[in-house]
Each structure stands twice: as C-alpha cells, then as structure tokens.
Amino acid sequence: SRTERAYHRLEDIHGFIDYMAKTYPDICSTEIIGYSVEKRPLKILKISNGNARNAGVWIDGGMHAREWISPATVTYIANQLVEGWEDLPEHMRSINWYIHPVANPDGYEYSHTTDRLWRKNMRAHGRQCPGVDLNRNFGYKWGGKGTSASPCSQTYRGSKAFSEPETFYISKFISGFPRETFQAYLSFHSYGQYILYPWGYDYQLTQDRADLDRVARQAGTSITKSTGVKYTVGSSATTLYPAAGGSDDWAKGIAGIKYAYTIEMGDTGRYGFVLPARFIQYNGKDGVTFADTVARAIAQGR
Ligand code: 0X9
Ligand code: ZN
Questions:
Q1: What's domain 10-118+162-299's architecture?
Q2: Ligand 1 pocket by C-beta < 6 Å: which residues?
Q3: CB within 10 Å: which end of the chain, N or C, has fewer?
Q4: How many angstroms separate the alpha carbon of residue 241 from the centre of ligand 1?
Q5: Domain limits of the chain?
Q6: Which positions carry the signal peptide feature in this UniProt record (predicted)?
Q7: What's the pTM value of the predicted model, to 2 decimals?
C-alpha cells in the first residue's frame, strides 16, 4: 500500500486509530485513557493476539508538541504491526502493544495552528506563560536537575508531580495493570538520533545497565544495517543532559518496567524539529526495528 508522506493533524491520527480498530477488530481496539487540559481525548491503540498473559509494551509519541516526527514514527509502527501482523515474527505477535501516538494533543495542535516550535502542553497560568513540560512532570525525582519552577521556562515542571492530565492518565493506565505486565516503555522524541536509557535525573546508572545498554546497542546496529542511520547509545544524563521528571525514569523507577527508553529520532540538526515529511519513512523503519529488537529481548527473557 502507498506510504503517506505528510505530517497529520490530531483528528487524522485519531481517525487512523479508529479505522484500525474497525478494520482489524480481531487484533485492534482503542481506548480513551483520559482527556487533556483542553479536553481532547488521550487516545491509544491496543494491538494484540488476544492473550491477556502476553507481556505489554507501551509506546508513546508527541509528548513534545513540535517533535512532529515522533507521532509520525509511532503511527508508522502501529501501521506496520497491524498491516503486517500475519507475517510478523512470533516474538512480536506475542506482545500486547499499547500505542499512544499523540501524548500532548493540545500542544500538537497548537504547533500546527499557531507556533511551530511549541514544546509544552497548554496549561494556562493566569497572566503568566502557558504550558508545562510533560517530560518534567512525571513522578520520579520530580523537581530535580534540568527542571524549572518558572512557568515561562521551556522545561517548566508544573506545580507538582502529575499535575497535568496528559501525564497523570498515562501513569494511571499503566499502574492499573499487574506490575509484571509491562516489560518495555518506549517514548519517542526528536531530534538527535539517540537511544537513551535511565537515569535521566542524574548521572547514576541502574543495576541492570548492562541489559539496557546491550539491547539499545543491538537496536542501533540493526537500524544502521537496515537504513544506514546511526544512533548514539547511552544513559540520558550522561549522553544528553540531566533532566528529572521524565517518563522513562518514572517507568523504570516507579512502574518497574525493565526496558525504559527514550528514542530521539532524526535528524542530527540539519532540519531539527522542522524535519521535512520525506524523512518519515526512514524514521518509521527505524522505529519498527527498535520495537522488533525490544520485543526479541523480552521473548528471550533478559
Ligand atoms: O529533554 C527531554 O525531555 C528529552 N529531549 S528533547 O529534546 N526531546 O526534549 C530527553 C529526555 C531524556 N530522558 C530523561 N531526561 N529522563
Ligand atoms: Zn522531546
């Protein structure tokens, strides 16, 4: 089938999710896990062979409004999983996939209509600047390094952990499952071509750093083999900068999800956030390779 070469508005992405659930009811279903500050639905697509005992993998995109390649990549992954389901390797069909392409729907729409480089959500603060950085609002080491208490900052952490519905409902949804359910939490961002693992809040590393690093490097190698694109692998704080309150740290530190990654998609800065749509296909393929690698690691139980 024809590959789309355009960035889509929220309505279209949600329409795609609904279409998937309608067309492939045996493996797809949708759920609204909550509503954003401006009351837009927080909509996810579940893809599964129906076995409730499967390991779960959470994938989100669009937490930062201007990172348009992220929802595009996540939507591409969903499409490849569903359209190619019968031909997928067993390790990918025995995962329950939970896919949330636009985690910041208000900001995403604002970046289309008003300010292309908008990052945060659309929380109003009276006469002060609007917006909370959702990736500083999660409840692990909230308020630490790389976060700001000023509403006008691009990295404003919010008034308290999970003050924002967009982060609160993700944590609520995941916390509603038995603790062993989710084995991976993949958060897609841009840009820079990095595969990052905890911690983000500080330079320390996790006990199982070797596992996180090995799977990340496997993914990086497979990606380079398939599209030629290179990703830099390392912990968030050491590779990028320390920043507390990220979704990945919460997934690892509180939800107990083993494979917690933030993937910074392309490019490395030529176009940055304003990446032309002709690059969607490369990024989409790389996203699928990443999901494949993580699913394989889960199947191997390490
Ligand atoms: O700063 C961020 O939130 C992410 N980079 S971005 O350019 N997309 O804004 C990196 C987040 C890495 N993870 C943590 N710091 N926990
Ligand atoms: Zn981001």
A1: 3-Layer(aba) Sandwich (3.40)
A2: 64, 67, 135, 189, 196, 200, 236, 240, 243, 246, 248-249, 262, 264
A3: N
A4: 8
A5: 10-118+162-299
A6: none
A7: 0.98
